[in-house]
Amino acid sequence: TPHRTLTHPEALEALRNFLKERSSYDVFPVSFRLIVLDTQLKVKKALDVMLLYGVVSAPLWNTSTAKFAGMFTVQDVIHLIQYYYHTSSWEGATADVEQFRLHSIRDIEKALVVPPPPLLSVHPLRPLYDACRYLIRTHARRLPLIDRDTQTGGEVVISVLTQYRVLKFIAVNCRDITQYLTASVQEMGIGSYVSPESNPDPINNPNKYYPLATATMQTTVFDVVHMFSEQGISAVPIVDSDGKVLNLYETVDVITLVRNGAYQSLDLTISQALKQRAVDFPGVVTCSPKDSLSAIFSLIKIRRVHRLVVVQGRDDPNPGRLVGIISLSDIMRALIGHDIPLGGAGVGAEVVDKAL
Ligand code: ADP
């Protein structure tokens, strides 16, 4: 076919068609490993296994019913820590969290009045496009792929689809399409952007980075954990008094603290906690509000990006100043577009509000 350029909407449409013609199976290598956790396991054991295999989440399996029982994610660990921080002494909290069995986590969520992660799953042969529509609806940010055993009819957990896997698959296979996504991310409204003038209550809740949750080097880990839990976010930019981005504190960083067995660590300041980061920490990925989606796909192709902090570029009077944050779910929503909400839970409605 003769070469022709695509407009931005045409490129998005071409990507959607690509996703409609593939299934979740296409995203995975021929052979892969899957860690599944029994709901009878204690949290401590589960964390040890996850750290050993370098995973930050895993599907849960209920042996007595022989059924998939939801996902165990970093968010669950955050909830556990928060729960015990209030209800027990330090020693008690450590002991309790470690003795806790995975099947009881849903009780903690009820006590904290946070939404339970949905039991949403999809058949691996369904179109990838459908899987993506489910992905942007689930709070777990990951979608288990479940098949049925042809002989017993029982459930089989095949793998877990994450936002990163899908976006990386597109980045690797669709360069001929993504190259036409040239509009800037800010122009496209992809991500959340600093906009203090839209703060509905600037007197009682002043926040010069509204609607972004930020922290400084002096903020305690506890306060940041609270932001994660309350706002349902997985990263908070660390800024100085001029709004310059110094770092990013992520939910996965809390896991490092827990691994070190120090629940007292919640009293640490961010500055102290950042010193405990592994030496191989990959760093914070930033972009400018003028960067295109095409440039971001090029980045995803070569780096394990989980979110980008948007900062003023070098040509700005305040280079490095916080402008916004782009999560993988923001990019997914931009690709999939407006979606028909699922009934129930209100999850679908929330997604539609945030969709482009
Ligand atoms: P993901 O859903 O990809 O795991 P997040 O949980 O970080 O990513 O983000 C969820 C939503 O919240 C996104 O729309 C993102 O733009 C927004 N968001 C992320 N971090 C912050 C923050 N620190 N303050 C306010 N909103 C945020």
Explain this structure.
With 356 residues, the chain is an alpha+beta fold. The chain folds into 2 domains: 8-168, CBS-domain; 172-354, CBS-domain (Roll), CATH 3.10.580.10. It has helices spanning 8-20, 24-27, 43-53, 74-87, 90-99, 105-112, 128-135, 163-173, 175-178, 185-188, 221-231, 251-259, 270-274, 293-302, 328-336, 347-354, and strands spanning 37-38, 58-62, 67-72, 142-148, 155-162, 192-193, 235-239, 245-250, 286-287, 307-311, 322-327. The strands form 4 sheets. It has a 4-stranded mixed β-sheet. Strand 1 (37-38), helix 3 (43-53) and strand 2 form a beta-alpha-beta unit. Helix 4 packs across helix 6 and helix 4 packs across helix 11 (221-231). The longest helix is centred in the N-terminal third of the chain and has 14 residues, at 74-87. The radius of gyration is 21 Å and the shape is globular. The model is unreliable at 340-356 (pLDDT under 50). It binds adenosine-5'-diphosphate.
Write the layout of secondary structure elements.
Layout: H1 8-20, H2 24-27, E1 37-38, H3 43-53, E2 58-62, E3 67-72, H4 74-87, H5 90-99, H6 105-112, H7 128-135, E4 142-148, E5 155-162, H8 163-173, H9 175-178, H10 185-188, E6 192-193, H11 221-231, E7 235-239, E8 245-250, H12 251-259, H13 270-274, E9 286-287, H14 293-302, E10 307-311, E11 322-327, H15 328-336, H16 347-354
Parallel strand pairs: 1-2, 9-10
Antiparallel strand pairs: 2-3, 4-5, 6-11, 7-8, 10-11
Helix pairs in contact: 4-5, 4-6, 4-11, 4-12, 8-14
